[in-house]
Amino acid sequence: FARSEFRLGRRGADGVSLRETLETAWRMSLDGVMPPELEDDVDMPAGFEYLWGWFTRLSACRPSAMDGVSGIPESEIRAYFQNRGIRPEPWELRVIERLDAVAIDAGNKSQKDGTDQPQD
Questions:
Q1: Is 54 exposed, middle or buried (0-12, 13-18, 19+ CB in 10 A)?
Q2: Contact at 8 Å (CB) between 106 and 99?
Q3: Which DSSP state fits 17?
Q4: Between residues 96 and 105, which one has the greater pLDDT?
Q5: Confidence at 111, pLDDT banded by 50, 70, 90
């Protein structure tokens, strides 16, 4: 799910995400055939919404980096949960760490191919 979100959320030089571009092309097509990239889009797993919400808010705290995408600092993760009185389970923290690793990978790939970083 996350890889698909990051890939389709990348913005081009025009500021439009790949998803928006593909959906517009689909609407404007005469044959009405969905682009294959959208057919491969993955739905958010049931029960994952709150974890994705945590991750997207934490991702906004990501420091900028000169040569790629940097990880979400553990201090930000700790502060986020402490300030909200949330005690995440260890497995939930591992999910956030894994999402962060996927986001870093996607962001670094987008920098190499000239597109913007993924939008959360």
A1: buried
A2: no
A3: B
A4: 96
A5: low
Give the tens place of pLDDT for each residue, 16-44: 878 888 888 888 888 888 887 877 777 77
Coil vs helix vs strand at 11: strand
Residues in the chain: 120
Q: DSSP class of residue 47?
A: T
User: How far apart are the C-alpha atoms of 79 and 120, rounded to whole Å?
Assistant: 20
CB 81 within 8 A of CB 88: yes
Instruction: Tell if the pTM clears 0.70, that is, is over it.
Output: no
The tokens of 84 are what? 């909200």
The number of angstroms, rounded, from the C-alpha of 32 to the middle of its chain's C-alpha atoms is 28
